[in-house]
Amino acid sequence: xxxxPPIPVAVFDAQNYDEEFLAPAFRAVxxxxxxxxxxxxxxxxxxxxxxxxxxxxxxxDLGRAVIDALVGMNVGLIALRCAGFNNVDFEACHGxxxxxxxxxxxxxxxxxxxxxxxxxxxxxxxxxWLRTRDNNFSIHGLLGFDLFGxxxxxxxxxxxxxxxAEIFQGFGLRRLAYDPFPDTAWAARTGVEYVPLEKLWAExxxxxxxxxxxxxxxxxxxxxxxxxxxxxVVVINTGRGRLIDTRALLHGLKSGRIGAxxxxxxxxxxxxxxxxxxxxxxxxxxxxxxxxFPNVIITAHQAFFTQEAMTAIARTTAxxxxxxxxxxxxxxxxxxxxxxxxxxxxxxxxxxxS
Length: 354
Ligand code: NAD
Fold this sequence. Notes:
This protein folds into 2 domains: about 5-105 and about 305-350, Rossmann fold; about 105-300, NAD(P)-binding Rossmann-like Domain (Rossmann fold). Helix content is about 35%, strand content about 15%. The chain has helices at about 15-30, 65-70, 90-95, 105-125, 125-135, 160-170, 185-190, 195-205, 225, 245-255, 285-290, 305-325, 335-340, 345-350; strands at about 5-10, 30-35, 55, 75-80, 100, 150-155, 175-180, 195, 205-210, 235, 260-265, 295-300. Strands 8-7-6-9-10-11-12 form a 7-stranded parallel sheet, with helices on both faces. The longest helix has 19 residues, at about 305-325. Bound molecules: nicotinamide-adenine-dinucleotide. Nicotinamide-adenine-dinucleotide binds near residues 159, 212, 239 and 264. Nicotinamide-adenine-dinucleotide binds near residues 158, 181 and 240.
């Protein structure tokens, strides 16, 4: 029997932990990974020369210039090793290069991180940790509130938003939700109430974002919507940075309208996240100001980062690329229609819209 030659795949923005999980998963299905620590960009795209597919992450640049270059090099597939796909220019891809993603790896990983941010902020764990390490055992200023009986607003009730809502149920939170494609059967079963966004902003003590970044959701939290929120609201964002107008968030924090913010994503994160800049500092005054607030916790896009999620991401990405290379149906494809509407491919592909 003749063995098929391995399929070369250029893996961008590859950290050592990516290699650890991706290398065995890729080799197991006949793919040959070439790991590049550089992010994909017009300047680095030539590293993909000779590859049949590229494997990319949340902050790689998949704008028109990069797509044109990839198509010119006969790269036929973009395999996102993440769920979000806002960094891809689907107009440029349409009919020229296909795109797959990992729609679900562990919604629990992201949901649990969102809840971790909320609990840490509310009970000021980050401040207590610093104090006790310094033999300061005072609890002044560490007052929190009971979650029980408060109202949480969940924006986006897909895989992650639903897990968050179910965890919140255990805390005894009243749960409001907004989603343009509501899952009413699930809501009835779990006691979640779908409401218009205006009501969610006005009544929530905690607001957590789990919708994709689309033209409709860019800046969904902005000066106008912050003005409609309860004084002291806790805002959690593990979705995408551009869901929040950060300058408006800063104003909200300064005025006290926003009581605390837990951010795993930031609108300019491409320039900073996943890098150690502790020796150079950062030149982003907005991010620098955000880090000065005692009631803000920023994590650098780590919500997905659990063993289970990394294993699932590696397996699904490998399967996606293998299926494409064998001309099999791409069950995890993403297309122009998904990008325009925020609707998962599975939900519309059957109707032929792509
Ligand atoms: P999903 O596709 O299962 O769910 C997204 C939900 O958002 C869907 O129910 C959709 O109908 C809804 N939606 C679409 N437009 C909306 C709008 N205008 N307002 C409110 N809801 C809207 O996706 P998921 O797996 O739950 O992931 C959600 C998002 O979380 C992803 O798009 C990604 O950006 C982000 N994410 C972040 C991390 C991280 O590590 N921080 C990891 C995975 C995903």
